[in-house]
Amino acid sequence: MSRLAKIGDWFEQRLKIWPAIQETAEHRVPAKSASWFYVFGSAALTVFMLQIFTGIMLALIYVPSAGEAWNSLQYLNHGVTLGWFLRAVHGWGSNFMVAIVLIHMVQVAMFGAYKFPRELTWIVGVFLLLMTLGMAFTGQVLRFDQDAYWGLGIGASICGRVPFIGAWVVHLLLGGPIIAGDTLSRFFAFHVFAIPGLLIAFVSVHLLMVLKLGINDWPMPGRLVRRSTYVQEYEDLTRKDGVPFVPDAVWKDMIFASVVIASVLACAAYFGPYGPSGQPDPTIVQTVPKPDYFFQWLYALLALLPPQMETVALLVGPVVILGWLILLPFFAGEGEKSWKRRPIAVVTIALTAVTLGTLTHYASYTPWSPIMDAWSGDPVPVQYLNGRSPLERQGAAIFQEKQCRNCHSIGGSGGLRGPTLDSVAVRMTHDQLVRQVVQGGGNMPAYGKNLNPAEVTALVSFLDTLHPANQPAARDAARQISEQGERSATPTGKP
Amino acid sequence: MSEQDVSRRQFFVKLGLVMNGLAAVVLATPVVGYLLAPIMRGEGGRYRKWIDIGELDEFPEGQTRLAKYKNPISNTWDGETDNIPCWVRRVRGETFQVFAINCAHLGCPVRWFPQSGLFMCPCHGGVYYQDGSRASGPPPRGLFEYQYKVENGHLMIEAGQLPTLSTSASLYKRSKGCQG
To answer: How many structural domains compose chain A?
Structure first.
């Protein structure tokens, strides 16, 4: 016996763990389940381990103090050998982890894997998703920059909408009356101790159940799940048409996991670390806070929901979604597993994906936000000034100076909060424009107090010129008739 | 093993459970108190203090300016988060309006545009008039206001708390305008 084997034996005599390892490794899985579709769970676990490792590495340097965190991140980026790379791997790892967990969830839902007897595996998985998102949010806070500061403000404002105990929830979240040192310290405790501890525990239970109950069989249309017969059918299936997990299935997990890790490393090396953006100094108000990628759908939703629905959506929405996900295996615990015969499941997943994707896409250019420097930064297109009267040009200057441009684009630049004004004169008559400018309405502030009558006249005569060459400006028919009347009465009247 | 022995052991197991339960309660009490400290510390408006934000001359009549103050409830390790901005509008004489920087929608920092006389929020497009009332966008109410007073030629505000829909910038205004 070789020396190595002897050492192994010495440990085995004391640990007595080899039979368990062997049993785990060689447990039989349905041959069809040894598929490329079944690699996402192990990939999520792999990225989680990568996150733990890189997280510990970052904690060697990071200072969890509101006064020093930002500086320590700068030091990590610029002062520590390859510190930037480890930050980048951790940041990209979090992106990949959220993405893979979601893909895993979609795959599990499409393959009916949450059905009997794997209901609890699914429910634990739902909590794992919540914890993953919790890690993503708290991690974004630890990158203690402007986005983190105002992100906390948004979190606190959401908590402040809780009825009756809102103030308490806000103070609990922040660890005090306002975003400060205690806030960062508690988010550090969540991100580094509490949530990872729970994650490890829940991942262990999740994995244990996968081993005890066996991996989901490949869904066959027409092969229905029944509580009375399923366990026996699954046993028969793995006996007749099963393969040992190692090596028949595991090689796909291993290859995919290494591809994922390589992708994380490649993204980290190519794109570099996330921020930190500006210092977490709230007196720097020239900032446009934005959440990280995985929360941008929420950012978009909060801009687009009707205001009166917001509080309800924020407080009741998560409860409904969570409740529905947890109860799903109870009201759909039996029956058809194949996506080919579960159109409602497929449509639900597709709609959810399209919704989240669309919202995230909107968040990439935030049409609902005023562009804060458009009024001073974007030029008025030359063709809108050429050949215009002094009054109309004065109107263009007022259009810029009064920040109209922040919400209204012309010539393809400016805000998208309000309608684009390149052809506004076609849509609205002179009088309608005056009314809209002075009184506002339809989500536009009233400018009556901030424009004197001369300015309104100039501004609206500029707006009157904004129509395509081949399309005349809108005119009030009644006004036309009365003007004609005036003209015939006083031949020297205005044209 | 006699029957008496069994009941004796069962008794001791129960005793052990009870003792551990008592220990858990004794341990939990201070832990719960510790965890709830951020709530209890602030009860009765103790999170707010009067702060001097500058001489009256710093705020010209009819203008709105950004003022900064040190958060009154702070620790040395708060760093830059200690600096809190607010918008001071001197209406006339000693009549002021002091607005919190935080948008009433979701707390982002609103910016003042003197030319158009509007506060605009960069996050979700909330807009307010110069008197802080809601002009457009998603905010459910106007800007949060600090309570102020003038003392010895200095403008004082009562501050210290992040204003949200259920936490006010200053104590007295809690019930005002939330329905807006």
So the answer is: 2
